[in-house]
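User: For my dataset I need records formatted as: sequence, then structure tokens, nothing else. Please produce one.
Assistant:
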Amino acid sequence: MAASGVRVSGGAHRGRRLEVPASARPTSGRLREALLSIWGEELPGSRFLDLFAGSGVMGLEAAGRGALSVLAVEGNPRALKVLERNRSSLGEAIDLRRLKLPEGLERLLQEEAGPFDLIFADPPYAYTAHEKLLTAVSPLLARHGEFALEHSSRHPAPDQAADLIRVDTRRYGESCLSRYRHGPS
């Protein structure tokens, strides 16, 4: 059963309401707007990967703001059904995958699904395997790309993992947004 909805904050679908899976905590409009503003010029024409996608609001906003392609990954089958309905209601042709994260990212590598210019992950707030997630994301991220991790302020993200180095962290209430780029070769 889906809980109350979330409103798309910008782009072609601005103001549209999406379903939210009962098990999900959607990324706040304030945080989404901040990140998409930071990524503003990089977003049009980008390859976008949305991890722990839940309702799919972040990937659907990216598509509505000009991302060339969007892949939304979610491990919960019920959440994936909600995401499918949200995709259909907006008429967006984003790709969906059911994968357990972060282990399932190896499958994307085998399928040569990357590289992605922009990657966003919003794992559950109790999630603490940030370093493992960063390590799995690194080979999927384009050399010039950026990875953004939403996390609880109670569970700080690592400064670095694999060859990804944190370049910024901003706090939005209980939520933090840490951004990573590849370090020097």
